[in-house]
Amino acid sequence: MIENSSSLLSWIIFAPLLFGAVLLVLPSKLERYFRTFALVAGVANLLLALKLWANFDGFISEMQFVQLVSWIPQLGISYFLGVDGISLPLVMLTAFITPIAILGTWPKDFSKLKQEKFFVFMVMVLQTGMYGTFLACDLFLFYFFWEIVLIPMFFLIGIWGGSERVYATTKFFIYTMVGSLLMLVAIMWMVYRHQQNFGVPSASLIDLAKLQYDFFHNGVCSAVFSEQGLLFLAFTLAFVIKVPMVPFHTWLPDAHVQAPTLGSVFLAAVLLKLGTYGLIRIAIPMFPEAASYFSMMMMILGIIGVIYGAFCAWGQSDFKKLVAYSSVSHMGYILVGLFSFNQVATAGSLYQMVNHGISSAGLFMIVGFLYERLHTRNLNDFGGIAKSAPIMAIAFMILTLSSVALPGTNGFVGEFTILFGTFQVRPVVALITGLGVIFGAIYALKAYQRVMFGPVTNDHNKHVADLSVREFLAMGILTVFIFGIGFFPNTFFGKSNSTLDSYSKQLMEKVIHE
Amino acid sequence: MQVIESNIPLLIILLPLLGFLINGAIMPIFYRGFAKTPANVAGGIATFFIASSFILAVKAFLQVHEMGESSGAVLSYAFDWFNYGNLVIPFSLRIDALSSLMTLIITGVGSLIHIYSIGYMHHDHAVGRFFSYLNLFCFAMLLLVLGDSLVILFFGWEGVGLCSYLLIGFWYSDTEKANAGVKAFITNRVGDLGFLVGMFLLYSVFGTLTISEIVALLGNPDFIAKVTPVATLICLALFVGATGKSAQLPLYVWLPDAMAGPTPVSALIHAATMVTAGVYMVARLNPLFELSATALSVVANVGAVTALFAGTIAVAQTDIKKVLAYSTVSQLGYMFLACGVGAYNTAIFHLMTHAFFKALLFLGSGSVIHACSGEQDMRKMGGLKKYLPHTYITMLIGSLAISGIPIFSGFFSKDEIIYSTIALPAGFSHLFIIGVITAILTAFYTARMMSMTFLGEERLSHHAKDHLHESPWSMVGPLYVLAFLAAVGGLLGIPHLLGMNLGHIPHLISHWLSPIIAVKHLPLVGEHLPLHEGVVMFGSIVFAVGSFTIGWRTFKNKFFISDIVKGIAGVQQVLANKYYVDEIYDAVVITSLKGISSWAANVFDKVVIDGAVNGVAVVSRFFADKIRVIQNGDLQAYALVMLFGVFIVVVTVYGILNPL
Amino acid sequence: MNSVASLLEIFPIPTLTSEQSVSLLPLVILSITAVLVIIVGAQKSSDKGRTGAMLLSLFGMFLSATVTYKTFSFEQVDFLSGTLLFDYQERILSLVLHLCAVLGLLVNYGYDKREELMSEIYGLLPISLAGMILMVSTNHLLFMFISLEIMSLAIYVMVAMRRNSKFSAEAGLKYFILGGLASAFLLYGSALLFGASGSFNLVLISQSFERGVSPIFYVGLMFVMVGLLFKVGAFPFHSWIPDVYQGATTSVTGFMGAAVKLVAFMALTKVSLNLMFASTSVGNTAIVLVVGGIAAVTIIFGNFVALKQNELKRMLAYSTIAHTGYLLLGILSLSGSPANAQYIMIYLVLYAFSNIGIFALIVMLEKSGSKDIVIDDLAGLWNKYPMISIAMTIFLLSMAGIPLTSGFIGKYLLFAAAVSAKQIVLVVLAVLASVVSVYYYLRVIITMFMKEPQHGSGVVVASKWIGCGITVAISVFITIQMGIFPAIFIK
Lengths: 514, 660, 491
Fold this sequence. Notes:
The complex is a heterotrimer of chains A (514), B (660) and C (491). In chain A, 73% of the residues lie in helices and 3% in strands. Chain A has 514 residues and is mainly alpha-helical. Chain B folds into 4 domains: 148 residues; 135 residues; 274 residues, no CATH class; 76 residues. In chain B, β2 and β3 form a beta hairpin. Helices cover 72% and strands 4% of the residues of chain B. Chain B is globular, with a radius of gyration of 31 Å. In chain B, strands 1-2-3 form a 3-stranded mixed β-sheet. In chain B, α3 runs parallel beside α15 and α17 runs antiparallel to α18. By secondary structure, chain C is mainly α. Chain C has one domain. In chain C, a hairpin with a 4-residue loop joins β1 and β2. Chains A and C meet through β1, α5, α6 and α7 of A and α18 and α19 of C.
C-alpha cells in the first residue's frame, strides 16, 4: 500500500466545499451567475477526476493515491483516503454527472429563483459528501461522509421541492437515519473487537478486514444472532435502505416526486450507488461467511425488487414515479449480481451501478424538461410531443433503450454480465431475473409511447419547445457515454479489472474454506 | 478450414451504419429540420450505401468461392468487445458459405427495396427518418448474420427488434400503429429471453460463445458425449428465441399487426430478412441441433402446425397485406419443418426463394395500395389488371412461384421440403400430410388474392378510381428484377431426380453450403421408399396447379370461401378473426399482468409498505401521548413519584442482594 | 486570650503550603466578587448599578479563571487528607465551568433590563460557580453535600428571579422543595455509608471493601444515587425539569441545564467509580441492572414525550432528559474500564455549549412577557433572520448527533465506550430512540426553513443583544470545531 502518495483525493473531496465557501462570500444580487459558478466548480472537479483517472494504474489491485493522517488517535480513527478499481468508476460517474446535471437542469428564467445561493451551496456540500463516501477507507470517515450526504439532500428536497416536500424529506431522512445508526453501533463493535484482538483500536478498512468473527450456521437463528451475522445484517440494513431494496423502498418515489429536478438527478444517479457501494466494499468482504449464508435471501429480495419494481413502474400514472420505480427495478439487478459471488456478476454489478447512474440521470432530466414546459408529470396529459420536439424525442428514445438494456447501449453491458455470471452459479435465479428484461421493456416503452407518440390530444402539447443548447449538450454527452460504454466497455472499465480479480479471489478463499 | 483476414465484413456492416448516421443526423442539420430532407436525396444516400455493401458482399462471395472445397471464411476481427474473467467476447465478423449467401440476400433484396421505397415514400413527410431507420436495420441484420460470437449475433438480434419497432410505429401519430410497434418489441423480447438462457446454458457446457469454436468442439466425438444430455435443453431455449423472432406459433401474434408499418418495411423486415433470423440461427448451429432428436421433432412439429394454422387463416383475410403476412408465417413454418427433419440446406434454399417471391408480392401489393391511394381492403379493389399491367405481371410471377407451379423457384424449394419430410426420416409421417395440405392452401389463398385484386369487376371507390395510376418506374423496376429472380431462383437447387437425368446438374445450394451443413444422403431411386421421389413431385405439381386454378376462377367476384361452400359460414367467421388468438392472449396474459401492476402500484405499495412505515410514526406518537400524562404539573405528585422511584430502587437492590 | 487559644485548639488553622493556597485562591476571589457585586448592585438607580455589577462580576470571574489557569503547572494538590483534590482533570473542568458561567452572565446582560431582574443575579452566578468548583474537586461525601447546597441555593434564587411572570416563582419553588428532598436523601445516604464503612471519603470507603460489605452499604449507596439522580434528572426523579425549564428565567436555564448537569454527573461518576464498580461483589450486578433500567426508561421517556411537545423550551427540557439517559449509559460503561470517565466528561462539555447556545438564541427570540415560543412561531425564520436559523440548526443537529457537529463525536465516544462495556442492547435502544429525537429536532428545522409564516401570528422579532451574540458565536465555534477536530480534547 503506497503511503501518502498524493493529496489529490483530498482536493477532489474538498474542492466543491471551497467553491461553496467562495460562493457564500459573493453578494446575493449576483444571483444569475451562481448557476454558472456551480458549473465551473463541477468542471473543475471533473478535471481533477480526469487527472486521477489518467495516472490511475490499472494493474495494481490495492488502494492508490493513499492519504493517511491520524484524526482521533485514541480511537484509532484516521483520515484515510484511497481509490481502487471498485471506487474509481463511481468517482468518475459523480464527476461526470455533476456538470451534466447542472447543465441539464438550467433554470429557464432567473426571476423565479428561491435562495439561489443556498441552493448552489447545498449542491456543493452534496458533492463533497458523495466524493468522500466513495474515497473513504476508514469506516468512521465513511460513516462521517455517509451522514453528511443526508443534510444537503434534506434541504434540497425540503426547501425547493414540490407540494408535500416536508413529508417526503422527513421520511427520507428518518428512513436513512434508522439504518445508518444501527451501522454506527456495528462500527463501534468492530473497532472494539479490533482493540481486543490487536491491542490498539483502528477503524481502517484494511485492519478491520483482518479480523475474524465467529459465525455458526447450524440453524437460522443461530446464524442471525452469531456475531458475524448480526454485524452483517446491521451493515446490510443500512445499505439496503439506500439501494433501495423492495421492502425498504417507499421513500424513493416520494423523495423523487417532491425533489427539484437537480436534486432527483443526483439522488438517482449517485446517492443510490452509495448503498450498493457499501455492500460491495464493506458488507460482503468483511463478513464473507454471513454474506454467503444470507446470499440466497438477498438474491430473492433482489429478484422481488426487479419484478415488483417493474410492475409498480408499469402501474404508475405519474411519469417521475415511474422512473423512480424503474430505478428500484434496475438496482435489484445489482443486488442479484453482488450476492451471486461470481466474479463476472460482481463486475457486472459494478458496471450496472455506473450505467444506471447515466440512464436514470438522463431520464430524470427528460422528466424535468417536460415539467418545466408543461408543468405536469401525469402521463395522460402528454401525447404526440415527438412532433414538436424531435430532438427531445430522440434523446428520450436513446435513454429508454439504455434503460431497456438494448445491446450496443451501456444498459446491456451491465445486465448481460450480471445474468451471465449469476447463471453459472444459480441458473434459476438468473432465469427469473431475466424476466425483468421483459417487464422492463413493457413499462419503458409504455412511458415513451404515452409521452411521445399518439395524436396530440390537449392543445398546449402542440408547440412544446425543443431542447435548448444547454439541454442538447447535456443529452449529447449522456448519449456519447451510453453508446461509448455499450460498444467499448473495456476502455471504460478496464482499469478496475485487477481490483475485481483480487476482490473475487479473496472472497472465494474466505467463502469456500468455511 | 482456410481463413483470410480482411476488413470487408467490417466494411459491409459499417456502410449501412454510415448511411444511418448521415440520414439520421447530418441531413437534418443540413436541411435544418427532421422532416425536410427530400425523398430522393435521402433515398439516394441510403440506396448508395446499401448497394455498395452489396457489391462488397459479392466480392466476399467470390473470395469464399475461390477457396473452393475447403470451407474457407473471410474473418475480420475488430477488437475484444468484452473480456473479463471467463467471459471473453471478440467483436469479430466472419463470412463463410452460409453467411455470404445470407449477406447477398439481405443486401441484394435490401437495395431493391430501398430503390422501391424512394418512389413509395415520395410524398411522406418524414422520409429522412424512414431511410435512416432502414439503413440502421440493414446494419443490425448484417451484424446478426456476420457475427462470429453468439453475443454479437444477439447484438444484431435485438438491433433488428428495435428497428422493426421503430419502423412499424413509423407513423407514430396514430396510437394503434404505435401499439403494434410496442407489441412487436415486447413479443420479440420474450423470445430474446429464451435466446439469452440458451446462450448461458450453451456457455456452461461449451465454455465459449464463439460459433466457430462451438462447431469445432462439436467435431470431436468424446466432447459430443458430454454435450448430448444438455443439448435438448439448449436447443429448445434457442428455439424459443427463434419462435419469437421468426413469428412461430406461440409468439407469432406480432407479425400480422406489424403490417401497420409502411409496405417496404413489411417487404424487407417481415418477409425477406428479419423473420428468417430464427431459421439462420438454427441452420448455423445445426450440428448442435442434430444431437437432440426431441428438439428436432419439436422444431418440425411447431413449424408444421404453424404453417397449417397460418395457411388456414390466410384464406379468410380481406386485407391484402394480412394475407401476405399470414402466408409469410406459414412459409416460415415450412422452413422450420425442413430444419426439423434435418434438411437444413433445403430450409436455407426455401429461405432464399421465399425472400425473392415474398418481397416481390409485398412490393407488388405496395404498388397496388399506392395506386389505390392507400386502400388495403381487397373487397374495394378488383379488375385492376388493365390499370396496373406491370404490377399484375410481376405479382402473377410471384404468386406462381409461391404456389409451387413448376419451373418457378417456389416449386423447387417447397417440393424438396415436402420430399425431405418423408425421405429423411425415411418414413411416412403426419408432417408429410400437413406439408401437402399447406401447399394446397398456399396456392389457393394466393390465387384468391390475385383474382380478388386484379380480376372481377371494379369495386373501387370513385375517389380511388380517378387517382388510379401505374406506379412509376422506380417502383416497377425492382418488381421486374425480383420477378426474374423468383422465376430463375429455382435453378440453383434442381432436385436429384431431374438433375441426374438432365445431364448431371448438381444441387448448387446444398453443394455450396456443404462445409456448413453436411449434406444428408437422400435415398435414391430404387431404395425402399413408400413413395418414389418422382411420384411425390408429380403429385405436388397436380395439387398446386389444381388449387391455383380453382382459386383463380372462383374468386373473380366472390370474397369468402363461405360464399362458395354454403355450410361453413361459422368456420369462415373463426378464420377471419384469426381463431380469436389475440383476444385470448389479451384476456389471459395482458389483462392479468395489468391487474397485478395496478394492484402492486396503488394497493400493495401505497397501503401495505407505506402504511407500515407511516404506522411506526403513528404508533410512536400514540405511545408518546399515553406517557405524557404523568407530567401533570402538581408538586405533590412529583414528590410522590420520586418517593415511589426510590422505593422501587431500594427494593430491587435489596431483593437481588439476598434473594428470598 | 485563652478563649481564643481554646478556639484555635478546636479549629486549628492549618498551615497551608504555597500551592494549596493558590489552588484555593479562585474560590476566595469568587466569594469576594459575589459580596462586592451585591453591594454595588444595591444602588438606587438600578441600570447604572446593573452594568457596574455585571462588569465587576465579569472581572472577578476572569481573575479566578486566570488563577486556575496558572495552577495547571502544579501537580496534584489535596486538602484535609483527601477531601479536596485539585488534579489536572479538575482544573480543566473548573476552566470549562468558568467559561459556562461567563457565557451565562453575558446572556443576562440586556435581558435583565427588559425583565427587570434584580442585579443580584450577577452576584449569585459567582456563588453557584464556586459551589460547582468545590463539588467537582471533592471526594468527601459531606463536602459534596455542602457544595451541592451552595450551588443549588444560588440557582433556586436565580430561577425564581423573573418577578413579572408567575411561572418563574412556581418553577423556583418546585425546584427548591424537590431539591431539598433530594439533598435529604443524599445526606441520609452518606450517613448510612459512613456507618457501613467508617469514613466519608469515597477513596477510603472503597478501600474498606476488603473487610467485607455490610447490607447497609447498599441502601446508603442507593440513597446517595437517588440524590444525585434527581440533580441530573433521570426518569423517576425528572418531573421537575420540564416545569423548571419552561418557567425559569430563560437566560439562567441555559447555564443551569449545562453546568448543573455537568457537575452532578461528575459527582455521579466519582461515586460509581469508587463505590459501585470497584468491587466485583454481587451488588455490582444489581446496581448495573438498576442503573441500566433507569437509563433505558429515561431515554425512552425523554425522547417520546418530547415528540408531542409544541413549546420549544418544553421540548428542549425533555430532550435534556433523553441526554441524561445517554449519559447514564456512559456511567454504566465505567464497569468496562475506568478510562471511560473522560468520554462522559467530553459529552457533557460538548452538550453544555450546545445547550447554552440554543438557550441564548431563545433569549433573543422571546418577546417580553408573552407566552413561550411555540415551534410554529418559528415558521419562515430562515428568510427573516438567516444567521439565527443557521445557528439554531447547528445546535439542533449537534443535539441530534449528526456528523460535522460536536454532538456526533460526543455520542460516538459515549456509545463506543458503552459498546466496549458490552452494553449492546442498551446502545441499540439508545440509538433507535435517538432516531425519534432526530424527528423532533428536524421538526424545528423544517418549520424554520420550509414552512411559510402564517401572516400575523408568530411574527418573531429578534432583539439583538451583543451579550447573546457573543455567546452564540462562541458556542457555534466550539460545536463545529469539536465536530471536525476533536482529537485535541481527548486525553
